[in-house]
Amino acid sequence: MHMDYGLKLELTQKLIMTPELRQAIAILQLSSFDLCELVEQELQENPVLEIEDPPSEDLSDTSTEQTAEDSSQDSYEWMEYFQDDTPKGSIQDAASGPHENVGIYTKTLHEHLELQLNLMALNQRERELGSYLIGCIDDNGYLICKLEEVGARLKRPYDEVERMLYVLQTFDPVGVASRDLKECLMLQLDYRQVADNLVNQIIMSFLDEVAAGRCKVIADKLHTTPAEVQAAIDIIKTLDPKPGRAFAAAGDPGYIVPDITVEEVNGTFVILVNDTSVPRLTISSYYKKVIRDTDLEAKKFIEGRLNAAAWLIKSIEQRRRTLYRVMEQLIHFQYDFFKQGPKYLRPLTMKKVADAIEMHESTVSRAIANKYVTTPHGLFALRTFFSASIHSSSGPDVAASQAKDELKALVASENPQKPLSDQLLSDLLSKKGMILSRRTVTKYREELGIASSSKRKRY
Question: How far apart are CA 254 and CA 252, in angstroms?
């Protein structure tokens, strides 16, 4: 067998994901709140970045000439990074309008419990133990450590730790500091003074059957009727299995800052990109001067920081322009929605919007991720405007959201003793002109959080 060895040249094309491109993609996906955090972090890490001061109107001729001279001497063409090809007046600064993104501080569960602990008539030893136990409560309101472990760590007797736990279980919200779901529900029943033996039995022994909707199984085991079991389950469903979820988690802002505002002004929809919470960045003129009068190693470092800063500013501006262009097309394709309300939402794909703005579909997907828009009809996620098409037998295709609304209405008006099966729901929707298979009805029903007909049945 003969083998030849040799060298040859080959020309190939490869798409390389540079760190700068990864950063641009990441910035495009960020919400206004997350972008603000990123900018604050970059300001701390990159010394050449600084917050842009508002333009001063009182500039002398000397300062103007000096600025022009510095610009001409600068060997780096920074202005190419900041060229704005957006039509003048198309994007408005949200600060110039009447809108204001005001965040409301939300108290965390642990702060709420600490406040109640401080109002109790306790000695220092008890207060320290109570504070430690509060630190062992998760965001849902449950104690996530064993009392024996707390006693061993703090060198306290078990009885003392248990007594303090019972004190915390009297705090608001009712059911907090529970060790499991059963204890949480029983605490809420005691608070409401509900003395129902059947309810207690179901909580202590049949919660799995309740979750599966097996009323008949529970009734047979407890020698009662399904109707009585269902009435008891109705009481249980009024209890909160996660009493701490009404409070914000640590670090959770507790509110949504819309990334875009759409207003109707004199019959025309105006787009406001709400990025006023993000500091306006610029490159320090000091480092532009230093780079010309320093050694080679320092020059390379500063040059790298300058390039990183310029790319960050360019990426943020590109995000702003992309958001505007996507929103502009959403208004075009969903004009009836913005004019008349959610009922007129039409089917729309990301590809259609991407083709209109001459971008890739994945770019549109990233642009609308985690973004919200304030419209004349309320606050909506940008993904709301993209909906699958449902074939209609009586006219133009309708959006999946409209089919879901009809599905909810049918379930709400059904006879609870004879709930509609998915096949019947499919037939009824077909009569309304919406052609959906049984599988699609099942999928939409589950997305809406509607139980199956067997679980919806009332005895």
Answer: 5
Give dist(CA 394, CA 202) in Å, integer.
49
Largest CA distance in the chain: 96
Judge whether 350 lies within some domain. yes
71 domain residue, yes or no? no
Does any domain span residue 353?
yes
- DSSP code string of 59-93: --HHHHHHHHHHHHH-SS-GGGGG---SPTTSSEE
Whether residue 409 is found in the same domain as residue 314: no
Cβ neighbours, 10 Å, residue 7: 4
- What are phi and psi for residue 421, nearest 5 degrees? -75, 165
Torsional class of 415: left (φ above 0), alpha (ψ -120 to 50), beta (otherwise):
beta
Q: For residues 342 and 201, which has the higher predicted lDDT (pLDDT)? A: 201
Report the pLDDT averaged over residues 70-79. Answer: 42
Band the pLDDT of 54: cuts 50, 70, 90. low
- Give tens-digit pLDDT for 244-295: 988 866 555 557 788 999 999 998 999 999 877 788 888 887 877 777 767 7
Please write the tens of the pLDDT for every residue from 83-120: 444 443 333 343 333 334 444 446 789 999 999 999 99
Find the helix or strand (DSSP H, E) in which 165 lies. Answer: helix 158-168
Please indicate, yes or no, whether residues 134 and 160 belong to a single structural domain of this protein.
yes
Mean pLDDT of the chain: 82
* Alpha-carbon span 173 to 249, nearest angstrom: 15
Residue 386 neighbours by CB under 8 Å, 6+ apart:
348, 349, 350, 353, 368
Burial of 369 (0-12, 13-18, 19+ CB in 10 A): middle
**Please, are residues 144 and 136 in contact by the beta-carbon 8 Å criterion?**
yes
CATH code of the domain covering residue 394: 1.10.10.60
- Is residue 352 within 8 A of residue 344, CB to CB? The reply is no
How many domains does the chain contain in total? 3
Measured distance CA(224)–CA(18) in Å, rounded: 68
Smallest CA-to-CA distance from 169 within 147, 153, 151 is with: 147
Q: Are 117 and 127 in contact (CB under 8 A)?
A: yes
CATH number of 132's domain: 1.10.10.1330
* Same domain flag for 95 and 158: no
**Preceding omega of 157 cis (within 30 degrees of 0):** no
Which structural domain range is residue 356 located in? 22-51+86-100+278-381
pTM for this predicted structure: 0.59
Q: Residue 208 domain-assigned?
A: yes
